[in-house]
Amino acid sequence: MNGAESQHDVVVVGGGLAGCEAAYQLAQRGLRVRLVEMKPHKRTPAQTSDRMAELVCSNSLRGAALSNAVGLLKEELRRVGSLALRCADETSVPAGGALAVDRERFAEAMTREIEAHPRITVEHREVTEIPAERPVILATGPLTSDALAASLAAAVGAEHLAYYDAIAPIVSADSIDWSRVWKQSRYGKGGAVRGDRAAQREQTAQPDRAAQPEDAAERRDDAEAGDEAYVNCPFDEAQYKAFVQALVASDKVEARAFEEVRYFEGCLPCEVMAARGEQTLAFGPMKPVGLTDPRTGRRPYAVLQLRPEDEAATAYNLVGFQTRMKYAEQLRVFRMVPGLEEAEFLRMGSVHRNTFVDAPALLGPAMELRAMPGVHLAGQISGVEGYVESAAAGFVCAILLAQQLRNESLRPPPPTTALGGILTHLGRKQPTYQPSNITWAHIAPLDPAHGKLRKRARYEVMAERALRDLDAWWAAG
To answer: Which of 102, 164, 274, 420 has a C-alpha 20 to 30 A away from that of 364?
Structure first.
């Protein structure tokens, strides 16, 4: 590097969760970082703010219980000084057994921390090819530009992959017909509350379905951990079937001819789920289990749930209803939902591309491209999925790079931890590599000496072991 560039030890491209976390961790270790972010000069189709670390899909960071793999990952990040988790905790909104944030306050807090750090310089411009400086971390996220993705594909000699991710609509709280809906926690936790605005602000939200736990036991754990006080829009059988038919028949935004549509299973558009079978939604995001309509005393046939988008509960997200329907169709179909007949839509649902590489084939143990030493990948471009996982990938990448720059032997997080599980996923070869949230399958299994434990008990023991091993790894530092 030369000129102004010589004043920096590392270049980080991308000011999302992974890029901000990586830049912060490197700077905290005494390294000078140049963080390059294209906003405000250019935004992706999914972005609406000029702040860094913008959460574009949901405000939920999912389950908090240690018996949940992502809950363990969050606790590990807290213990090792993650910027993203500190800002998330500081800007959290009521969410029962989940961690959800006020997304504007969260982005403000992250941006403020990055811009104020004495060893981080922020440069606003678009990067269209892999920078010549080394080392560099590419953390450009799911909407990596076509030009940069093409540069990356040419460098590694492998075709990058793409699929569509979808965003759920948001409605104004004032436009909900509160006489037709109610608030209630699942499984009798928190009781049922009819929709007055004072109570509305006191209620909490459940984890986003996009968490997509890996098995039925974890799905149950998530529910028992606190599906707290969503707004419930109840359907009878006829209403539900008409709604499903409308979703299937709706006019959708089609992919361009040269783009292959490959959805992430944890964030399927609602109309894709509906097309898989009439009862798919009723056993998915619209399952009525654990809910009783106070007007009838019975469980509805199906329920569409709404989650508060901000601390004041002025807006609500249609949980699990990511969509690629055209805007006019969204207004028509979603106003079939009981209580949303006259809903004001503050944000329409949309789809966006997610670009990622075949990490097991391309990345080495330090998340470094084998074909281009000094070029590291972090976040969703490497194939992790989810807000917490993206921040964790940025953290791990920074830690390993810092070790390299100090000429130390690599000391990755132990494979018994959720942070180690991030690396396990990135290195685990698959017939067709796909992005993934953190799951217990990414964490080293228990020793057989523990005997046969029920799933939840096994997860709790694994979490205890993970935190113990993490603390030892971190202390050895």
So the answer is: 164
Q: Return the DSSP state at 208.
A: P
Mean pLDDT of 256-260: 49
> How far apart are alpha carbons 160 and 156 in whole angstroms?
9
Residue 383 to residue 412: CA distance in whole angstroms:
18
Could you identify the residue written with the tokens 């986003």? Answer: 208
Q: Are residues 193 and 292 in the same domain?
A: yes
Q: Per mean pLDDT, which range of 248-257, 341-350, 369-378 is the poorest?
A: 248-257
Are 156 and 371 in contact, with CB atoms under 8 Å apart? yes
The DSSP line for 401-467 is HHHHHTTPPP-PPPTTSHHHHHHHHHH---SS---B---GGGSPPPPGGG----HHHHHHHHHHHHH
**Which range marks the domain in which residue 211 is found?**
166-353
In the chain, count H helices and then E strands: 14, 17
Beta strand 192-194 pairing with 60-63 = unpaired
pLDDT-based confidence at residue 1 (cuts at 50, 70, 90): very low
Confidence bin at 6 (pLDDT 50/70/90): low
Question: Is residue 313 within 8 Å of 230, Cβ to Cβ?
Answer: no
3-state secondary structure (DSSP) of residue 286: coil
pLDDT 10s digits, 18-53: 999 999 999 999 999 999 999 887 776 667 788 999
Tell me: do 257 and 173 sit in the same domain. Answer: yes
Alpha helix stretches (DSSP H) within 80-180: 83-90, 103-116, 146-156
Task: Please state whether beta strands 92-93 and 98-101 pair in parallel, antiparallel, or not at all (unpaired).
Answer: antiparallel
The Cα–Cα gap between 434 and 265 comes to 10
Q: Which amino acid is at 288?
A: P
Percent of the chain with pLDDT over 70: 83
Question: Is the CB of residue 456 less than 8 Å from the CB of residue 403?
Answer: no
**Alpha-carbon separation of residue 400 from 32, 128, 346, 397, 411 (angstroms):** 16, 26, 42, 5, 7
d(CA 156, CA 371): 6
Same domain, 170 and 100: no
Any residues with CB less than 8 A from the CB of 455 and at least 6 apart, and which? Answer: 215, 217, 218
- Count of domains for the chain: 2
